[in-house]
UniProtKB/TrEMBL annotation:
Keywords: Hydrolase, Metal-binding. Coiled coil: none annotated. This is Putative HAD-superfamily hydrolase. The lineage of its organism: Bacteria, Pseudomonadati, Pseudomonadota, Gammaproteobacteria, Enterobacterales. SUPFAM superfamilies: HAD-like. GO terms for molecular function: hydrolase activity; metal ion binding.
Length: 230
C-alpha cells in the first residue's frame, strides 16, 4: 500500500499526494541525544546544567551547535576536543538504547505499508554503521559526511532525491526536529516536510515561528497519517 497525505500550503488543502518514500533526520528525531551531550559535559569538566544552559543559548541564537565548544573552551575547537576525547577512550558510541521508543515501531510500520524508509542527517559516517548495528530497519542510511554536504544546504536534499530515482519530490517526505535545518529546506526542495516537535531545537524554534506542513509531538501517528486514504 502506498501512503497518502494531504499537504497544506498557506492554509489551503492541496490535491492528495502519494508518499512513496520517507527520510528521517537522526538526532532528536530517531535518537535521543541526551546521553551524548551529558557525556560531553562530563568530559569537559562542566556541570551538566551549565553545559545544557550554554547549548540552549547557542540554539536560541541560531548558531551551529558546535559553537558551544568555543563558548565553553575558547582556546580549543571541536576537532581538537573530539580528538582528545578519542584518545582518552571516551568517545560517544551510539547504542540501541539511545533510540526513542517510538522510532523502530514507526519505521517498521512504514516499511510494512510498502513505503521506502531512509535515514539521512548531519552525522559522521560512523553513525551509518552504528544505526545498522542497532537494528534500525531502513532501506537507505546516509550521512552528511558520506555525501560531503550538510543541511540546510539544498544539495543535501538533492542527494535524497537522487537516492530515490523515479520519484517526484512531492512523493518524498522528510521528518526532522528543526525548522531551519529540516522542515524549511525540505519544503523548498518540493518534499513533504514533517516537523517533529521534540528536543531543544524544536522547543525553541517552535516558539518563534509558524510551523509549516505537518507537525507532530512524536512518531506514533506518522504511519497512519502518511497511509491515510484521501
Amino acid at each position: 500500500m502506498i501512503g497518502k497525505v494531504t499537504a497544506r500550503r498557506g492554509g489551503e488543502r492541496s490535491k492528495p499526494v502519494a508518499i512513496k518514500a520517507v527520510f528521517f533526520d537522526v538526532g532528536e528525531t530517531l535518537v535521543d541525544e541526551s546521553r551524548e551531550w551529558a557525556e560531553w559535559a562530563d568530559f569537559l569538566g562542566l556541570s551538566r546544567l551549565t553545559f545544557f544552559a550554554a547549548l540552549g543559548a547557542v540554539i536560541a541564537r541560531g548558531e551551529h551547535h558546535r559553537r558551544i565548544f568555543r563558548l565553553v573552551r575558547p582556546d580549543s575547537d571541536f576537532q581538537q576536543l573530539q580528538q582528545q576525547r578519542e584518545q582518552a577512550g571516551k568517545s560517544y558510541r551510539l547504542r540501541a538504547t539511545d533510540l526513542y521508543p517510538d522510532a523502530l515501531p514507526c519505521l517498521r510500520r512504514l516499511r510494512q505499508a510498502g513505503i521506502l524508509v531512509g535515514i539521512a542527517g548531519n552525522q559522521p559516517q560512523a553513525v551509518e554503521q552504528a544505526l545498522r548495528l542497532a537494528g534500525v530497519p531502513a532501506d537507505i542510511i546516509r550521512s552528511s559526511a558520506s555525501w560531503g554536504v550538510e543541511k540546510p544546504d539544498p544539495r543535501f536534499f538533492q542527494q535524497i532525491l537522487a537516492a530515490t530515482p523515479g520519484l517526484k519530490p512531492s512523493e518524498v517526505a522528510y521528518v526532522g526536529d528543526r525548522l531551519d535545518n529540516d522542515v524549511l529546506p525540505a519544503r523548498q526542495a518540493g518534499m513533504l516536510a514533517v516537523f517533529l516537535r521534540r528536543g531543544p531545537w524544536a522547543l525553541l524554534q517552535d516558539a518563534r515561528r509558524e510551523t509549516p506542513g505537518i507537525a507532530l509531538d512524536d512518531l506514533h501517528a506518522l504511519p497512519a497519517i502518511l497511509c491515510r486514504q484521501p
